[in-house]
Design goal:
- By secondary structure, the chain is of the alpha+beta class.
- It has eleven helices and 37 strands.
- A hairpin with a 5-residue loop joins strand 12 and strand 13.
- The radius of gyration is 26 Å and the shape is globular.
């Protein structure tokens, strides 16, 4: 509900029809797989031969080209077509009209009225097209998109689907927009392809609770045939819409076809600083005026904050923060990656409610709606380029560099982005590749250092190994490298493949399937408790690392390309229903406003009534059965972590966070 309130606010702040519009363009499309169409699809569509008999169906976006089974044996790949008919308003003749795709998997060729406008490669990042000259104002406009999601070693992640540890699915699976602008307008940062430029670029300096400097670089283009004199205004509004500060720059001029980037400075007194525990968002309103008439306006939500690495610790606004994290794949049953904005928001809520303060977006850029939700909820993010266990030729690497640039240009203004993972996960990257990635981060954020991460401990600001990349039993406890350590994955592979129980009584007597952290929600109480115990053991052990924090593998179960089963090490299943391990993590957060007590049993014939586990973040827990007190337990500190004492009848696991 909060998310929709912000949508309403931003719509109210958006510019009226006279000078700029952003029109939802995701409804009333038609779709067909190419094999279902007789003849040439392009000619058929232009000839208006679009009927149910011709193999087309009516759809809305986001959309997946193939409804997959719950457990995917072989993900569909192939060619598909999307068509949309629309009328261009006469007032658009004097405007610049852009078509904006948030994501389409993974090679998209776009046609308008029979003219090929663009072929875009890469399924995880947005692209825009200026369609002004191709519009028809006298006849129906026919927009066609041909998609190809087949394997390509030139397009990251590049690895063939049959060998990939996730599915990338199909379709125009994110939103599409139509943007109507005046000749004099704020540009799109991805479309402009300028390092640290294009659109709006916001960064901060001198951040304290007394004052903060908000820098706003604004890139303006004059697409008209005459010179334009204009002024630029920046306004910062608080949550209630009240003006906090305003600055104006006048006397600016652009010749026809030229563009100019102008930077404004907003000095904010006693700012509300963004923090995971206080995710305060301002609205930044940027306006262009020519002869006093509003030409364009953009409104974005920003969080004033400062991130830094010092002495092996991560600081937010000058205060250290220990990361408690997880990983997220974005898929959902049957629809693949085509989640609605509401579903994206719900995922962020569930991650935050589990007690995590950071989420690694493994292993690709995720939806705008998810990033917006993380800003609002106070959930830090690790933004990643597409990649996993594969590196291709020079063309592939050039594409990966472009992914890094476009990712940073798309997400640079999000308050939640703490670290940029400009690395191909678990891939033997050559030195020149890593050096170029770090150089890109500096080019894209020259005035405010962007923290980078990679799974190899060279060049990057943060070292991002998985727990299993270290050796049993120490893993990363004896790490002495110069780059700060963050355990980017733990709790799964070391129990699945390395058989690495450390201190668990009876672990050696378990079958392999029982020891694993890969447990479906229907696998039974014993195995789900074992999954939770594995995560607890690994997380407790990680607390001895010289580290910034850790991220478990993972939040939600997911399907894999290389294996015909569900990877079930999620603390929630594919439908976002919790396993016992979810409550273990929830118990690690301080009580705050939400004390937790969870009895980890289904209390049925498959349960063990002689040993009940309870997860809690409270100082004391009492167990009753039919109104009779069985036992009470108090929280006790043990060394560097906090646990309830474990007794045979009533085992309680809680609060393994470090003692301050």
């Amino acid at each position: 509900m909060k998310y929709f309130c912000w949508i309403i606010v931003l719509c109210c702040l958006a510019a009226p029809e006279g000078h700029a519009q952003k029109i939802p363009f995701s409804d009333q499309w038609q779709f067909s797989k190419e094999e279902k169409l007789a003849g040439n699809p392009l000619l058929m569509a232009l000839g208006n031969a679009v009927t149910p008999d011709a193999g087309w169906q009516h759809v809305n976006l986001p959309h997946t080209a193939n409804l997959e089974p719950l457990v995917i044996q072989s993900q569909w790949v192939g060619l598909s077509w999307y068509r949309k008919d629309f009328t261009a308003k006469k007032e658009w003749k004097s405007k610049q009209v852009f078509l904006h795709f948030e994501g389409a998997m993974q090679t998209a060729t776009v046609y308008l009225n029979g003219k090929e406008l663009l072929t875009h490669t890469g399924g995880y990042l947005p692209f825009s097209i200026n369609i002004s000259s191709a519009l028809s104002f006298d006849n129906n406009n026919v927009l066609l998109v041909r998609l190809n999601n087949q394997d390509s070693p030139l397009v990251p992640p590049g690895k063939p689907l049959k060998d990939l540890d996730f599915c990338y699915y199909s379709g125009i699976y994110r939103n599409v927009w139509l943007e109507i602008k005046n000749d004099l307008h704020i540009t799109d940062p991805v479309m402009e392809a300028i390092p640290a430029g294009g659109g709006l670029h916001v960064w901060y300096s001198g951040v304290s609770d007394k004052q903060a400097n908000v820098h706003v670089a604004t890139h303006i283009r004059n697409a008209g045939g005459q010179s334009a004199d204009y002024s630029l205004q920046w306004q910062l509004l608080d949550k209630k819409g009240k003006m906090v500060v305003k600055e104006t720059t006048a006397g600016l001029k652009l010749a026809p076809g030229e563009a100019l980037q102008t930077t404004g400075l907003l000095k904010v007194l006693t700012p509300q600083l963004w923090h995971p525990d206080n995710p305060y968002l301002y609205t930044l309103k940027v306006q262009i005026r020519k002869e006093g008439i509003l030409q364009d306006e953009q409104n974005i939500r920003i969080g004033i904050r400062e991130f830094a690495l010092r002495d092996g610790r991560f600081y937010v606004n000058g205060k250290p923060l220990l990361f408690r994290g997880t990983n997220r794949h974005q898929e959902y049953p049957y629809i693949g990656n085509a989640l609605s904005d509401n579903a994206q928001y719900r995922d962020a809520v569930k991650i935050k409610d589990a007690g995590f303060n950071i989420v690694r977006l493994s292993h690709y850029p995720q939806a705008n709606a998810f990033m917006d939700a993380c800003d609002e909820l106070g959930l830090l993010t690790i933004a990643a380029i597409p990649g996993w266990q594969f590196i291709g030729n020079d063309s592939f690497m050039t594409h990966a560099y472009r992914d890094a640039q476009e990712l940073m240009r798309r997400d640079r203004n999000h308050a939640s982005v703490a670290i940029w993972e400009l690395s191909l996960n678990e891939t033997a990257m050559p030195d020149h590749f890593m050096e170029r990635m770090v150089a890109i981060a500096k080019e894209e954020s020259p005035a405010s250092p962007a923290l980078t991460a990679g799974w190899i401990d060279k060049y990057y600001d943060v070292f991002f190994p998985a727990r299993q990349h270290g050796k049993f039993p120490d893993y990363w406890k004896k790490y002495t490298g110069k780059i700060p350590l963050f355990t980017a994955e733990y709790g799964d592979w070391e129990y699945f493949a390395q058989d690495a129980g450390l201190n668990q009584a009876g672990y050696a007597g378990l079958k392999g399937s029982e020891r694993s952290s890969r447990q479906l929600r229907g696998d039974g109480e014993k195995r789900l408790l074992q999954q939770a115990l594995n995560f607890q053991e690994a997380h407790n052990d990680n607390l001895h690392n010289p580290h910034l924090g850790d991220a478990n593998w993972l939040m939600f179960d997911y399907n894999r390309g290389y294996s015909p089963d569900i990877e079930a090490s999620g603390i929630m299943d594919l439908f976002r229903l919790p396993k016992f391990s979810y409550y273990f993590y929830k118990s690690q957060a301080p009580p705050g406003k939400e004390p937790l007590v969870n009895i980890a049993t289904w209390w049925n014939e498959r349960s063990d009534p002689s040993a009940i586990k309870v997860y809690s973040n409270c100082e004391e827990v009492a167990l009753y059965l039919n109104g009779k007190l069985i036992e009470k337990r108090k929280l006790v500190a043990t060394g560097s972590r906090i646990n309830f004492v474990i007794r045979p009848l009533f085992s309680i696991f809680s609060n393994s966070r470090p003692v301050n």
